[in-house]
Specification:
5-stranded parallel sheet; binds iron/sulfur cluster; FAD/NAD(P)-binding domain; 471 residues; 18 helices; 3 domains; Fumarate Reductase Iron-sulfur Protein, Chain B, domain 2; binds flavin-adenine dinucleotide; 18 strands; globular; alpha/beta
C-alpha cells in the first residue's frame, strides 16, 4: 500500500500573518522517520541528478531510517555546507523532488507524492546545528597561508568561503552592505529563513578563520587589480543580481511605488517592521499591489500583508501577474502560503499606466486583461493582451517585482572583465574562471537570477578550481 506523504507542521495562517516568525515548524523525529521510510531506495536514484550539487539523497535518507542522523548530516555536508538554509528555501519541487520516481511524470513541478527531500534535509541540517556539528574541523589558516578574496557574502560567496576555509586557505570576504548574507539577509524574510540560522552559518565560517569586511565595495573602495597586487592569489566574485527591473510604463515614478528590492531591504535588512524601534520606516497602504509572480513578489506581498495587519489595517494586498498560476516561477509552497494568509491573486493582467493624486502619490493602476498564447523562449505560455479589456485597480502602494539584473558596480570599472549583453560575467564553465586570470565568478552574476543552491553549486566549482590552482 502506498504510504501517504508526511505533512509538515506549520503555524496557522491567521496567527502567522501577524508577525515575522517562522511559518514552517519542520519535522520532528517520528515524522522524519516516517517520511524517510517512504523512500523506495531506487537502484538508479534520479533525485540526485535533480539536485544542482548532487547530494547523495538516497544515502542520507537511508541513514535517517537507521537513525544515523550524524551520518546523514555528513553525507549532505559532502556536497552542501548549508542544509538548514537549503532545506528551507530550495525550490525542491523544480529540482530533486521533480525527479523523484514517486512524482507524477510530465507535470511542471513535483506532485505531492514525491518524497519531501527538502524537509528531511532541513531536519538533518537542524540536527547538525543543534548538535554543534556545523563547523567542520578545518585546520586554522597559518599566518603564511595563501589568501583568497571573495567579493559578496550571498550564497555564492559563503559557499566558496566554506570550501576554501575547510582546507586551511585564508579567506577575506568583502561585502558592500553592513550585514552579511546577500539575498538571504536582505531579500528572503525571516518568516521563511530565521536569522539565527543564517547567523549560525556565518559564525561557523568565522570560526573557520574567514575574515569578513562589511561596508566595503570592491570597485569603489578598492578594485580587483589592487586585490591581486596586494597578494591575494585568487579573487572570487559573487556579486549577485541586485538591480531591479521596472515596468517602463507611464506614472512609474509616482511616490509610493517601490521596487521589491527596496521594499524588502527596508523590511528585512533594516527591520522596518520594528519601526520606530528600528530606524528605517517603510510606507504601508490600505490597498497594496505587488506586480510579478516570482519568489520576490511572494515575499514582498507576504511582508506587505503582515505590515498591514501589524498596523491595524484591514489587509488588502493583491498580486498582479501577467500569466496564469502554472507559469508563476515562485516556489509552490510560497504561493499556497500567500493565498492562505489572505493575499489576493489577479492573474493574466498586464499593467499599463499608474495614476496619482495632486501631490504625486500613486492612487490607481490601469491594466489590460491577457490570455495565454503559445510558449515563448522561456518555455512558458506567452501572455497576449486583449484589446479593449482595460480595467483599473485602486492602490496606494505598488511594489514592482518583475525581475533582477546584474549588479554592475564592479564590472563597469573592470574593463578586462568580459560580460554579456545582460551585464552578467562570462566564465569558462568548467572552472568558473573569468577573462582575468585567477579571477573566478559564480552565482546570479554569472547565470542571471537563479536559486540559492545553483549559486552554491557554481561557487563550489570555482572553489575547486582555486584549490587546484593553489596546489
Ligand atoms: P546575492 O545573494 O545577491 O549576494 C550578492 C552579494 O554581493 C550582496 O550581498 C551584495 O551586496 C554583494 N555585492 C555586490 N557587489 C559588490 C561589490 N562590488 N563589493 C562588495 N559586495 C558586493 N532562491 C531560492 O533558491 N529559493 C528562494 O526561496 C528564493 N527566494 C528569493 C527571494 C528573493 C526576494 C530574491 C531576491 C531571490 C530569491 N531567490 C531564491 C534567489 C536567490 O536568493 C539567489 O539566486 C541567490 O541569492 C544568489 O546568490 P549570490 O550569492 O549570487 O548573490
Ligand atoms: Fe533538493 Fe535543494 Fe537539497 Fe539539492 S539542496 S537535495 S535540490 S532540497
Amino acid at each position: 500500500m502506498k504510504k501517504e506523504p508526511v505533512k509538515i507542521k506549520e503555524v496557522e495562517a491567521k496567527v502567522r500573518a501577524e508577525n515575522f516568525n517562522e511559518v514552517i515548524l519542520g519535522y520532528g523525529e517520528e515524522e522524519a522517520l516516517a517520511e524517510a521510510g517512504r523512500c523506495l531506495q531506487c537502484k538508479n536514484p534520479l533525485c540526485i541528478s535533480g539536485c544542482p550539487v548532487e547530494i547523495d539523497i538516497k544515502t542520507f535518507i537511508y541513514k535517517i531510517t537507521q537513525k544515523d542522523y550524524a551520518g546523514a548530516y555528513n553525507t549532505i555536508r559532502e556536497k552542501n555546507n548549508f542544509p538548514s538554509i537549503c532545506g528551507r528555501v530550495c525550490p525542491a519541487e523544480y529540482q530533486c523532488r521533480k525527479a523523484c520516481v514517486l512524482s507524477k511524470k510530465g507535470e511542471p513541478f513535483a506532485t505531492p507524492q514525491a518524497i519531501n527531500i527538502h524537509f528531511l534535509e532541513r531536519f538533518i541540517g537542524d540536527y547538525g546545528m543543534n548538535h554543534n556539528d556545523s563547523t567542520p574541523h578545518a585546520p586554522r589558516p597559518t599566518p603564511h597561508a595563501k589568501r583568497v578574496a571573495i567579493v559578496g557574502s550571498g550564497p555564492a560567496g559563503i559557499a566558496c568561503a566554506g570550501e576554501l576555509a575547510r582546507r586551511g586557505i585564508k579567506v577575506v570576504m568583502f561585502e558592500g552592505l553592513h550585514k552579511l548574507g546577500g539575498v538571504l539577509r536582505y531579500g528572503i524574510p525571516p518568516f521563511r529563513l530565521p536569522r539565527n540560522i543564517l547567523d549560525y552559518e556565518i559564525d561557523s565560517l568565522k570560526k573557520m578563520g574567514v575574515e569578513f569586511i562589511p561596508n566595503f565595495i570592491v570597485g569603489r573602495n578598492k578594485d580587483v587589480d589592487e586585490l591581486l597586487k596586494e597578494g591575494f592569489s585568487s579573487v572570487f566574485l559573487g556579486l549577485g543580481a541586485g538591480i531591479p527591473s521596472f515596468l517602463g510604463i507611464k506614472g512609474e515614478n509616482l511616490c509610493n511605488i517601490y521596487s521589491a528590492n527596496e521594499f524588502l531591504t527596508r523590511v528585512n535588512l533594516m527591520s522596518a517592521y520594528k519601526f520606530p524601534k528600528a530606524h528605517t520606516p517603510v510606507n504601508i497602504g490600505k490597498s497594496m499591489v505587488v506586480i510579478g509572480g516570482g519568489n520576490t513578489a511572494m515575499d514582498a506581498a507576504r511582508c506587505a500583508l503582515r505590515l498591514q495587519k501589524m498596523n491595524g489595517i484591514n489587509p488588502n494586498t493583491t498580486i498582479l501577474y501577467r500569466r496564469s498560476e502554472v507559469e508563476m516561477p515562485a516556489r509552490r509552497l510560497e504561493i499556497e502560503h500567500a493565498k492562505e494568509e489572505g493575499i489576493q491573486f489577479k492573474l493574466l493582467v498586464k499593467p499599463q499606466e499608474f495614476f496619482g493624486d495632486e501631490k504625486g502619490f500613486v492612487t490607481k493602476l490601469r491594466c489590460l486583461q491577457c490570455e495565454l498564447g503559445k510558449p515563448d523562449s522561456s518555455g512558458r505560455r506567452k501572455p497576449i493582451e486583449i484589446p479593449g479589456s482595460d480595467f483599473e485597480v485602486d492602490c496606494d502602494i505598488a511594489i514592482v517585482a518583475i525581475g533582477l539584473n546584474a549588479n554592475q558596480i564592479l564590472t563597469k570599472v573592470t574593463p578586462a572583465l568580459k560580460t554579456d549583453k545582460y551585464g552578467d560575467i562570462i566564465v569558462e564553465q568548467e572552472a568558473m574562471e573569468t577573462s582575468i586570470k585567477n579571477v573566478f565568478a559564480g552565482g546570479d552574476i554569472v547565470g542571471g537570477e537563479g536559486t540559492v543552491i545553483e549559486a552554491m553549486g557554481m561557487a563550489k566549482k570555482a572553489a575547486k578550481a582555486i584549490i587546484d590552482r593553489l596546489k
